[in-house]
């Protein structure tokens, strides 16, 4: 058996643990569930998924990308139904992995994915700004944006909780400025851990009157799915939530895998096995009533950059999370909620691909439009509907770009001296080009012969075939001049 390179994986696992700890807690609190449930998902991501084949260095746990959807599900169905929804997600992922559908997620437009992350990031950022000021966030994305001026006014006038605001701003300053410290210090301690640790120390030393994380033991928050919650899956809303969990968690996992594979030269990801591993992890999380999991690019990148060589680092990071939660649960009670909100504001801002949007606007405006529309749709509606809108727009944009139809109208004089209009069609004739095609044909004079040559078409869809047949019949009915068609149109009954 191949020896585990402990010299590399042990220190890497400690780095990933330190990065994952504040994020697990922050995602859980932002989702409206006990902080320990985020740690449970991180533990399962390490101890269960960390040992399974698929991706070697990718790290799984609760993700900021699902926070908005989880919070909505908890508000709509109740915290007791969350385990059942996550269980359904895991079983669906297992079925997709067995059917070898993992690789098909690579066919999703990258603009839709980046738009999804941007929409999630903006929703997360705007929502957590309220938590940073110790305020309750409005329920919908448009309301969150609309009430930001009032939040800013209250912050500047001192009407908002001043201690929470100052502590949150200080936490943000540490997160942003940490990378500018000497490299040895910046790399030794992850920025989220340093920021949250300093905020907790200041809160304890000054005895600041700010809300803190509520602490309970793991056994107090872990529970099997409640039978009374089966009604959550009975309607379209519950099933839609499961499908949304599945699609977004799977897409984020597999796109993260592609990104992680570009960071190292080790074994490549088996997408179907990785999807199966995620399905098993979410099934366990569902049985424990915890948060859904995905592979998380922040932890995965930290794992690669720390020098991990095998799956051992993933497993060990889950073990450190378990030991910390079991032995030092009281430490979580020192963490102020505004500091966790600052961590998530910072994480949400990083999800918005500003540089990519600028580059797309310069080179591929249609792709930039897909990205922006997807993000705006997520903010205006919800995550599932926004992604569907983005995918639909990406399909239409792609169809429009590939549906290139050239229409050439020539006026030819016959040997008899009579003028003839020759219409040559080439390229791809689809329903998207029907308005222009029919406008051109209907402008042809009825008293002159017409020759329609469509032999140069590479593709002719059913809508165009029916439209051309109908136009030919109408032209023959109202014109005394002959109409020649090459190839011949179908006979009209």
Automatic annotation (TrEMBL):
Its main location: membrane. GO terms for biological process: transmembrane transport. Residues 7-374 form the SLC26A/SulP transporter domain. Residues 423-478 form the MlaB-like STAS domain. It is found in: Membrane. Keywords: Membrane, Transmembrane, Transmembrane helix. InterPro entries: MlaB-like_STAS, SLC26A/SulP_dom, SLC26A/SulP_fam. The keyword Protease does not apply. The chain crosses the membrane at residues 12-30, 37-57, 77-99, 111-133, 159-178, 185-210, 230-258, 279-298, 318-347, 368-396. It comes from the Bacteria. GO terms for cellular component: membrane. This is Sulfate transporter. It comes from Streptomyces rubellomurinus (strain ATCC 31215).
